[in-house]
Design brief:
Blueprint (H helix, E strand, L loop, with lengths): L23 E4 L3 H12 L4 E5 L15 H4 L1 E4 L2 E5 L3 H9 L3 E5 L13 E4 L16 E5 L11 E3 L10 E2 L22 E3 L4 E5 L6 E2 L4 E5 L2 E4 L4 E6 L5 E2 L4 E6 L12 H18 L4
Parallel strand pairs: 1-2, 1-6, 2-5, 4-5, 6-7, 7-8
Antiparallel strand pairs: 3-4, 8-9, 10-17, 11-13, 11-16, 12-15, 13-14, 15-17
Length: 284
């Protein structure tokens, strides 16, 4: 078995994986989780992502969850590959890629025994994560209490606390309002105006104009709130409830950002890497 510490190296050049490298399991494969996976894989650690059978990811171009529907995805040189079971996942991680499994539960890992579990589902509450799930258990954002249901919490709210590791207590509470990007906050989020199937008339990375028809949900129009770039869009054909976030318009107008892991995701990923190193090194 082999493992790479640089995503650009070929399979034949990859170094043997050390037994000291922790198996990291991420519950959720959205864009924030993908930033975490990026940091962990750059440290040379094997990563397995657990996802739903029908992901509701918005920033699909920079999300490992896209492997569920597309079979594989490449995000800034990091390759995510859909794996049908534990044995296949082990082979995927051994060659330096991220294994993506359709399994909402940790029990779906089968024979794989994670050293690190990160709850990256961003549910704003603890659904079923326990501090006993692995040697290192980390929760992202509000809903977790460090020292109780996980070993550490990483702050996900933009601001001076973003990416900080919390060893006692919780992250800042959910405000219910998206952080501003390019001077736009709540109005940059596109929500389903009705329940039903989503049909897009624009794609991620497209420049859009105010009031332009972007999508329809059960025939009800979704229009651009201002000039910008369509930064994220839920998969066309998805069936959604009214009010669900289905897209995101970026007023900064830079299409290239649609294919780059965000500063927020990398900051959170850095916090997770710090927490794992500190916990495994006996510093926390």
């Amino acid at each position: 078995m082999s493992r790479t510490r640089a995503s650009s190296r070929s399979a034949s050049e990859r170094e043997p994986r050390s037994a000291s490298e922790p198996l990291c399991v991420l519950r959720g494969g959205g864009d924030l989780a993908t930033g975490v996976a990026w940091r962990l894989t750059r440290a040379g650690w094997p990563v397995v992502v657990l996802e739903l059978p029908e992901p509701l990811t918005i920033r699909r171009t920079v999300a490992l969850s896209s492997a569920v529907t597309d079979g594989e995805v490449c995000v800034q040189g990091m390759r995510g590959v859909l794996a049908g079971g534990a044995d296949e996942a082990a082979k995927v991680t051994a060659r330096g890629d991220v294994a993506v499994m359709v399994s909402p539960e940790l029990a779906g890992l089968g024979s794989l025994r994670p050293d690190v579990v990160v709850d990256a589902r961003l549910a704003k509450r603890n659904i079923d994560t326990s501090i006993g799930d692995a040697d290192v258990v980390i929760g992202l954002g509000p809903g977790f209490t460090a020292g109780s249901d996980c070993h550490a919490v990483v702050e996900t709210m933009r601001g001076h606390r973003l990416g900080r590791v919390i060893w006692s207590g919780s992250a800042l509470p959910d405000t219910g309002t998206p952080a501003a990007l390019g001077g736009r906050a709540a109005d940059r989020v596109l929500r389903a105006p009705a329940s039903g199937e989503v049909a897009w008339h624009a794609g991620i990375g497209d420049r859009v104009a105010e009031d332009q028809l972007l999508a329809e949900v059960s025939g009800v129009a979704v229009r651009a709130p201002f000039d910008g770039v369509l930064r994220g869009a839920i998969r066309s054909g998805s069936t959604v409830p009214q009010g669900l976030k289905i897209g995101d318009v970026d007023a900064r107008g830079d299409p290239s950002a649609c294919w780059e892991i965000s500063d927020k995701s990398l900051a959170v990923g850095g916090g997770v890497l710090e927490a794992v190193l500190a916990r495994r090194g006996g510093l926390a």
